[in-house]
Amino acid sequence: MNPVAKSVHVKVPATSANLGSGFDTIGLALDYYDELTFTLSDDPDNHSVTVLIDGEGEGTLPRDETNLVVSTFRKACNTFGLDRLGFTLEAHNRIPQARGMGSSAEAIVAGISAAAAFAHDGELNRDAIFELAATIEGHPDNVAPAVYGGLTVSWDYQTPEGVGSTRVSGGEPLSGGFHTVNYPVSERIHASVFVPDYELSTEKARQALPASVPYHDAIFNVSRVGLLPGAMNPGVLHGGLDANAVLFCATQDRLHQPYRKDLMTPSWELIETLRECGYAAAVSGAGPCVLVLHDGDAREDIERAAAEQLASGHWRVLHLTVNTTGVAVERG
């Protein structure tokens, strides 16, 4: 199959996973982006890649076939029926690396979306991109919002061995594998992300988790995560509930943060400071970034609550809105 374009520009949002209670299931897309341009070589005999990087990771990310964007692009091209292509990748990175803002999900979604845009005209097949991205990433919580935007709740539907799908009354069979549901988010919801000057690998953060958790802690999180879709779209709430009170409760957690806090002491201390002031603060993804969600613009008050940390020079804060569109491509 021949590519349908000479170049593809991809824009992928940062994401925050878990949001406290939604461990490995909840994700949120943010208006903060990496932008990448894939330009095909004019030489049909050139099947190599040239990688140019500026911004986050420019001094550490590989510039060869081992780059995650490149290796994912190669896999996706094969999946979509494209021959091996020679190309130049120009990556303009804003999303911090190894901080819990979905940099690896961004790289995977970018590579797959670019391959899809080269393979087919028209709108992206987001379901196909999500399915492949979740398989490569190994979990869907970050790739789902990167693909679809907004708030996503994802799961891995497991079927019996040898059975590819399950019959569902009144609908299409439910296939095994990763799935996601996209929930609306109110324009009033704002996110503040505190970015520290240290990193934490997802692998190390996962190693800190126990093999099992107490039953009452599981119940605690189930009751909190059920609040998140309503908390993020407070217009659906009834009974005079305050949106920020619901957000505060929805972001409570006993499944992962308590076990990881010793790996990110400054982050945990900031979370405690912010929650003592009444803000819905949680670890962003595997950390060490700290996410604060708020109904209404409270950036000045949030910065005031974290004044000591910001004054230390070890933290910066990004005040962001929610991205509702997910990955975007432009063919050239």
UniProtKB/TrEMBL annotation:
SUPFAM superfamilies: GHMP Kinase, C-terminal domain, Ribosomal protein S5 domain 2-like. Residues 248-310 form the GHMP kinase C-terminal domain. Its main location: cytoplasm. Keywords: Amino-acid biosynthesis, ATP-binding, Cytoplasm, Kinase, Nucleotide-binding, Threonine biosynthesis, Transferase. It is found in: Cytoplasm. The keyword Nuclease does not apply. It catalyses: L-homoserine + ATP = O-phospho-L-homoserine + ADP + H(+). Its EC number is 2.7.1.39. It comes from the Bacteria. GO terms for molecular function: ATP binding; homoserine kinase activity. Residues 67-150 form the GHMP kinase N-terminal domain. Pathway: Amino-acid biosynthesis; L-threonine biosynthesis; L-threonine from L-aspartate: step 4/5. It is an enzyme of class 2 (transferase). InterPro entries: GHMP_kinase_C_dom, GHMP_kinase_C_sf, GHMP_kinase_N_dom, Homoserine_kinase, Ribosomal_Su5_D2-typ_SF, Ribsml_uS5_D2-typ_fold_subgr. One of its GO terms (cellular component) is cytoplasm. GO terms for biological process: threonine biosynthetic process. Catalyzes the ATP-dependent phosphorylation of L-homoserine to L-homoserine phosphate. Belongs to the GHMP kinase family. Homoserine kinase subfamily. This is Homoserine kinase. It comes from Bifidobacterium boum. The lineage of its organism: Bacteria, Bacillati, Actinomycetota, Actinomycetes, Bifidobacteriales.
